[in-house]
Amino acid sequence: MRSWRHYHSNREGALVALIVLLLPVFFPGLFSPLGRVSPSIFSEWNAPKPRHLALLEGALHRKISDEQKSELWSQLSPQGWKPCIGSASRPVLPAKSSGYIQVFLDGGLNQQRMGICDAVIVAKILNATLVIPHLEVNLVWQDSSSFEEIYDVDHFINFLKDEVSIVRELPKEFSWSTREYYALGIRATRVKTAPVHASANWYLENVLPVLQSYGIAAISPFSHRLAFDDLPKEIQQLRCKVNFQALIFVPHINALGESLVKRLRNPVNPHSNEILQEVVEENANEESGKFAVLHLRFDKDMAAHSACDFGGGKAERLALAKYRQVIWQGRVLNSQFTDEELRSQGRCPLTPEEIGLLLAALGFDSKTRLYLASHKVYGGESRISTLRKLFPLMEDKKSLASVEELTKVEGKASLLAAVDYYVSVHSDIFISASPGNMHNAVLGHRTYENLKTIRPNMALLGQLFLNKSIGWSEFEQAVRAGHKGRYGQIRLRKPKQSIYTYPAPDCMCRG
């Protein structure tokens, strides 16, 4: 009898285990991350409660003076620098090209953008003809957008025609040189050895001979494969000319971006479908008709790579640790430090709650029109609920655009990012929650045009958020003091720093 019961018990246990294993297969929605509609009951984490309740309470009841608002929303004063990338004389292309250059670019929109600029420069250095760069499928976002889907190819080619020869595709005799061709084996025409931040001489010594032998060279990988230093001034200025003038988005991305900008500046009453008329008073709000863009870089990749604790409990910590191991096989140095050590060093990305508290301390109020530029927030709507409580007028692409308008960009991470980039560059203020390629690209573009950009003081904020006894008044004063000079003031590029992030002095002149 006992053995039968034991057998029956084991059989029932096995059956229950099998059901648990099969649940994700038949009911995947139950295990998906939290989203807009309904939370998952078996999510890898449950939405954490606010971690800074005292500060949140203070932020919700904050009082902001008209003087503070005026200072926050005022334009940057002229800083004595202006764009300076014009040629004194019209450049002339050599009569004969040394061959064709192909590059294969990985990463997201902004990493690829920098690679495109570098590809033009390498072609210039080698006197080669550049083939429109091939954009690899993004492994994180599973995006296969091509150069032609994102950028205006005709403008790109025509704008640079006096500087570099660029073609849409290879001539027939080189049609064999495809991405698939190089994936099948080692090829003499593929250059795989380009070091990170290679010098101009490296390309002359290692790639030019390939061009001279075969008439074509394919460089892959190509991200960050050209140095920022020891290049002639005209070459550095050409980099900025490509980045800020030659690379413009296709018309439908620009049109959608412009529509979103107009809707942010002129809110529409959903009940009357008429533009709300601002009441013009003697003391009209300084921020009327203005908006800020927040790039909330808080996706699963960012959260996992940081190795920080975000309040989701043991389930979240285990899930992020497993993701970190699968993706980077233990090559995340941050995982060797405690959460407190990482935060005190400013190495943890700001959570939506924390960036909301930062904005509140800087003087943004509940009437601020805030555009959320993000592809996918880890934890979805539940994670950003505190931020939305502080800034109820927060919008994004989906809340501002119609289904029809989003048709051409929906499901394409790079196209969606391009729309965000457009809105970010045209906003009154831009803030990025954490450093990254989007932050660097937009910061450089707005520096070039002298537009206000707030750079969070990550080390200061990390230390402030570790202080559980700090009150709102003390926090607010510390934040404001620690962000003086971080509103877009010109920072000259230092050796090894990116010219795409710091265009002065290479691409800007005093005057």
Automatic annotation (TrEMBL):
It is a single-pass membrane protein. The chain crosses the membrane at residues 12-31. The keyword Transmembrane applies. InterPro entries: FucosylTrfase_pln (IPR024709), GDP-Fuc_O-FucTrfase (IPR019378), GT106_glycosyltransferase (IPR052272). It is found in: Membrane. CDD domains: O-FucT_plant. Keywords: Carbohydrate metabolism, Fucose metabolism, Glycoprotein, Glycosyltransferase, Membrane, Transferase, Transmembrane, Transmembrane helix. GO terms for molecular function: glycosyltransferase activity. GO terms for biological process: fucose metabolic process. One of its GO terms (cellular component) is membrane. It comes from the Eukaryota. Belongs to the glycosyltransferase GT106 family. PANTHER family: O-FUCOSYLTRANSFERASE 2-RELATED, O-FUCOSYLTRANSFERASE 31. This is O-fucosyltransferase family protein. It comes from Ananas comosus. The gene is LOC109709472.
